[in-house]
Amino acid sequence: MASPCMIASHLNTFGCFSSNSTGLIYSTPPSPPTHLKRTRGPGFAVRGEAMAIEKLGIKVERNPPESKLQDLGVRTWPKWGCPPSKFPWTYTAKEKCYLLEGEVKVFPEGHGNEFVQIRAGDFVEFPKGMSCTWDVSVAVDKHYMFE
């Protein structure tokens, strides 16, 4: 007898088969929790609980809960800001930051015209070694921490 759980390729779904006195019954399992739905195309991951994305090596969490910011001590981190401008930057260490104000398009080197947009209310992680260009359209004020 076949395994009770099989891939029904003709339906393009994953489901389970069970038997009763009349034969096999197909049932679709419940959808996985949102946080387990990980991909949305190449190089783009999504976690639904806190609306966090990772794109082009940059992790962005939109509007993280205040409890996370408190646990990390974000409001005690140094602050940095800049007016609208465009400039190159290389991260010599991993940076975590929380944008209080601003809007920026970050263009990681080696990805052509692809960019990651960050804005006020975003918690962002930049990897060590990343070179990029910041295109600041709205003045930035942020808390930051290098690891």
Distance between the termini: 55 Å
Query: What is the overall silhouette?
Result: globular
Count of the domains: 2
Mean pLDDT across the residues is 78
Q: Rg, please?
A: 22 Å
What's the CATH architecture name of the largest domain? Sandwich
Structural class: mainly beta
Topology pattern, helix = H, strand = E: EEEEEEHEEEEEE
Number of strands: 12
Corresponding CATH superfamily of the largest domain: Jelly Rolls
Strand content: over 45%
**What name does the CATH topology of the largest domain carry?**
Jelly Rolls
Distinct helical segment count: 1
Model regions low in confidence, pLDDT < 50 over at least 5 residues: 1-42, 44-48
Largest sheet: 9 strands, antiparallel
Proportion of helical residues: under 10%
CATH classification, class level of the largest domain: Mainly Beta
Write the layout of secondary structure elements.
Elements: E1 5-8, E2 13-20, E3 23-27, E4 44-47, E5 52-55, E6 58-62, H1 66-72, E7 79-82, E8 85-90, E9 95-108, E10 116-119, E11 122-126, E12 131-146
Antiparallel strand pairs: 1-2, 2-3, 4-5, 5-6, 6-11, 7-12, 8-12, 9-10, 9-11, 9-12
Domain (S)-ureidoglycine aminohydrolase cupin: 70-144
Pfam families: Cupin_3
InterPro entries: RmlC-like_jellyroll (IPR014710), RmlC_Cupin_sf (IPR011051), UGlyAH_Cupin_dom (IPR008579)
Task: Identify the notable features of this structure and list them briefly.
3-stranded antiparallel β-sheet; globular; 9-stranded antiparallel β-sheet; Jelly Rolls; mainly beta; single chain; 12 strands; 2 domains
